[in-house]
Amino acid sequence: MGILLTIRAIIIWLAGLAAVIAPVWFAAAGLGSRFGLWDWRFGLGTMTREIGPNLLFAALGLGALALVLLIATAIFIKGRRAGAGSWVAAVAAIAIGAGGLWYAASVAARAGEIPPIHDISTDTANPPQFTASLVARRGEDANSVDYESKTDPRSGRPLPEVQAEAYPDIQPVSVSAEPLAAYRAALAVARELGWTVSTESERELMFEATATTFWYGFRDDIVVRVTALTDGGAVVDARSVSRVGVSDLGANAARLRAFTERLRDRLGED
User: Out of 36, 112, 145, 199, which residue is the most buried by the measure of CB atoms under 10 Å away?
Assistant: First the structure.
């Protein structure tokens, strides 16, 4: 009986430890990459994708075992019931392990549903182009910004064709506002969204910016172009490109979608 209670105490302690370590580990992986403590490949690849699932399985298994021992000893060993903290530790370990594994599975499923692309443009026939200075800042190891040469790695089909199927709502934004007013509104929206604007030109009606993710510090570069229409109004086009990775999990399309919605609201467009 004494041995069983000792084993129970050890398992509960380990379950509680796993419930604490697992979320801290994932937070460290993401924040460490963002603040340059290690490369994103180590943070995402090694810490999150390789080691992370083992921690989650350990938390789930220890939590389940602790819960079984708590129930068994409560039934068969009278007067030696564990405190509320032991039950919390067991349930927390189960919740964190199962929740983390479910989230990882949902991300993997999402990745399988969308094409592995990372360069999204409202104008696929004539996408906005980045300046040489921004391309240089992206670094030699960054993804190419040569839109015309890109294809879907899975099917080999041209990027514009794949994007049209995956994100049919990503389209040029036609507005009734004058070009300069549309440009200024677009620039204001970019800053509201937290983008870091690096190049802006009212003369050319274009600007460039970079969006940095909270987790892992991934940087995606954006270029926005405003074109005057002959019969009045303007067309606003935007392009968002990830610096690293093959699939963006829909992040660039979501960014352009948010930009479009806010721009229309700001200009009072339907």
Answer: 145
